[in-house]
Amino acid sequence: MRDNEKDLSWWQTFKSVGAAFFGVQSSTNHKQDFNKGKPVQFILVGLVAVILFVMSLVLAVTFVMPA
Questions:
Q1: To 10 degrees, the CA torsion angle through 7, 25, 28, 33?
Q2: Which of 56, 55, 47 is nearest to 14 (CA)?
Q3: How far apart are CA 10 and CA 3, in angstroms?
Q4: Cα separation, 15 vs 30, whole angstroms
Q5: 49 and 15 in contact (C-beta within 8 Å)?
Q6: Each residue's pLDDT tens digit, 14-42
Q7: How many Å apart are CA 13 and CA 55, to the nearest integer?
Q8: What Å distances lie between residue 45 and 24, 55, 57, CA to CA?
Q9: What keywords sit in the KW lines (predicted)?
């Protein structure tokens, strides 16, 4: 990485993980992620995204299934 390039912000990391989560990541963004991104950011945001996804599924099933 060159010194004049900034790392990805947390918001950019969140958007990138969201795009990858649904399989719509562009080639340009994919390259940018590998050049500017920090692995720790992607791991943390990915874990949060998976936890939120699982919690939303549990919540949806709770509302649909009779008690």
A1: 20
A2: 47
A3: 19
A4: 12
A5: no
A6: 999 999 888 898 899 889 998 999 999 99
A7: 21
A8: 17, 15, 18
A9: Membrane, Transmembrane, Transmembrane helix
